[in-house]
């Protein structure tokens, strides 16, 4: 059994995508980040960066005590190695999947995240910041579009690289991007969206957070007002 500490964000969706695809039994423990539940001491024991997602594996491969993992990319890699699914076995193919997983972790996610913040959440709209991150997000979409030319998925076979990237493309309209400008990404996106496991994963999100609310002032302070003093 996998305990998944989760909220309905792109990084959270990565893990439900994997779990639904793999068939691993799991239980979701919602962590409402707008209410500050990520600062609960018991959550910080497994996720010291006070961010979702995190997991606890009660049946690790070594047969020992439960293993906890935080950071979505590390979780995807851990689960892929645990199950032998969605990561290539051959050296060169594995490298392809891993480098695109890290591309998402270091590029697409952070840049799209800043895009979301300055375009949608920032109280003060700063034209330079909005333009900077919308343009960089578009550049990254184009990189992905080139990668997908002539191949069905990022590492040829469906893998954790696709699961990492897809949730960050879902809000493309909010990022100021038109998928018609990126035909290979659009084809790939539509194929993943239609997968039964993807449908199940996003259905779970709708059950947990059926009516995502706009952030009120209290939630904004929790989400965007953190500094060194909030690390306990």
UniProtKB/TrEMBL annotation:
Classification via Gene3D superfamilies: 1.20.1050.10, Glutaredoxin
Domain GST C-terminal: 90-212
Residue ranges constituting the GST N-terminal domain according to the UniProt record: 1-87
SUPFAM superfamilies on file: GST C-terminal domain-like, Thioredoxin-like
Transmembrane spans: none
Keyword match Zinc-finger: no
Keywords attached to this entry: Transferase
GO molecular function ontology, one term from the record: transferase activity
Family of the protein in this entry: Belongs to the GST superfamily.
Name by which UniProt lists this protein: Glutathione S-transferase
Upper taxonomic lineage: Bacteria, Pseudomonadati, Pseudomonadota, Betaproteobacteria, Burkholderiales
